[in-house]
Automatic annotation (TrEMBL):
Pfam families: 7tm_1
Protein name in the entry: G protein-coupled receptor 3
Native source organism of the sequence: Xiphophorus couchianus (Monterrey platyfish)
Keyword Ribosomal protein applies: no
Family assignment from sequence similarity: Belongs to the G-protein coupled receptor 1 family.
Length: 263
């Protein structure tokens, strides 16, 4: 008796798929090291380290989301629930990453303008409360696609990033631009803050503009091309904000160090 197979064929692996897998692995590995180091070291409890741990966790989730997207696209038959899962996880992680990064910028501003009082126990409690609100808000925003705000039943309403609707992605990109503008007003006169924000804007501005201008009929190649520098942001964040920090770098050599100087 001859049995017939009804399994659908998976799409062939492309260079974009390979890049997705490699970048997701690097992002997840880098940020896992940062988060583990900060959480395992009692001396790293200043507000800036809480913010860096949050930033690392957000970028770690972004790397995991990229790996899941690769698996669902090229290794396992994709489905509606897998698209909603990966898109929701990406939105959550990127929202938390943006807010955490803005928190790092605010921390550097306060540490320079209020050097004598900033860094107390009250500041740490405020930072922890802020991060709790950030992650609650990020989870609520990221749950949008799974709660019904998607274009799976209405393909014409899709954005350049299916299954997100054009309205949903436009609100995300518009919110990103608004937060950057507000933070730039705070960073006036501080060259380091300007550098931090310039790197972030350079990574995310192409995709943000493309998300506002494109729609479901736009060429997918442009979406991938603008996502490359966006993924680069999660690769650069650990290097720019954590691994260059003297206290984090010397943890393995001096585990009992309690200094909190920043580069």
């Amino acid at each position: 008796m001859q049995e017939s197979s009804t399994q659908p064929e998976l799409p062939p692996l492309t260079i974009w798929g390979v890049a997705l897998c490699i970048s997701g692995t690097l992002i997840a590995t880098e940020n896992a090291i940062v988060v583990t180091t900060i959480l395992a070291t009692p001396s790293l409890r200043a507000p800036v380290f809480l913010l860096l741990a949050s930033l690392g966790l957000a970028d770690l989730l972004a790397g995991v989301a990229l790996l899941l997207h690769f698996l669902f696209r090229f290794c396992v038959e994709p489905s509606d629930w897998s698209d909603l899962l990966t898109s929701g996880l990406l939105v959550t992680s990127l929202t938390a990453s943006l807010c955490s990064l803005m928190g790092v910028a605010l921390d550097r501003y306060l540490s320079l303008s209020h050097a004598l009082t900033y860094g107390s126990g009250q500041s740490r409690r405020r930072a922890a409360t802020l991060l709790l609100l950030v992650w609650l808000g990020a989870c609520v925003i990221g749950a949008g696609p799974a709660m019904g705000w998607h274009c799976l039943q209405e393909p014409n309403s899709c954005s350049v990033a299916r299954p997100l609707t054009r309205t949903y992605l436009s609100l995300l990109c518009g919110g990103f631009l608004m937060i950057v503008v507000v933070t730039l007003q705070l960073g006036k006169g501080f060259s380091r803050l300007i550098l931090v924000l310039s790197v972030f804007v350079g990574c995310w501005m192409p995709f943000s503009l493309w998300g506002l201008l494109g729609d479901a009929s736009s060429p997918p190649l442009y979406t991938y091309a603008t996502l490359v520098p966006a993924a680069g942001s999660s690769l650069l964040n650990p290097i720019l904000y954590s691994l260059r920090n003297k206290d984090i770098r010397k943890i393995n050599l001096f585990p009992d160090s309690d200094q909190t100087k920043l580069i």
